[in-house]
């Protein structure tokens, strides 16, 4: 249901994530999993340490955009940071969704640092049986 991405783009994303923190003008990417579960498409994003009110989810046509910001946990003036390895800043991910998904009914849940989006498969995309009409309308051609 998702469009494939260029593998070199993923390599660039990982390199950027490791070398620079994200800013609003150039956010870092966030890791995700995507899979189909029954009649839903599920996308899960890792956002540990992000407050739910710092997450923004938008859908425009078939483009899903998730933005988040992880702020420093310690803001006191008398704190001297000794080691800081957890990435801070802005994170963003855009996903092109297939037309077969119902973007009007996306359900979002955030638990234990994982943002999970459940996107239902559109009714028009589900398999269905087509009835075949009988031969009542046959006409005989006379010549």
Descriptive keywords:
1 helix, 143 residues, 3-stranded antiparallel sheet, 7 strands, single chain, 9% helix
What is the 3D form? elongated
Tally the helices: what do you get?
1
Strand portion: 25-35%
How far apart the termini lie comes to: 54 Å
Mean pLDDT: 82
Low-confidence spans: pLDDT under 50, at least 5 residues?
Answer: none
Biggest sheet strand order reads 1-2-7-6
Can you count the beta strands?
7
Biggest sheet details: 4 strands, antiparallel
Q: Please, could you describe this protein's structure?
A:
The chain contains one helix and seven strands; from the N terminus they run H-E-E-E-E-E-E-E. The chain has one helix at residues 7-19, and strands at residues 32-37, 40-46, 55-60, 63-70, 89-96, 107-111, 114-120. The longest helix has 13 residues, at 7-19. The termini are far apart. The mean pLDDT is 82.
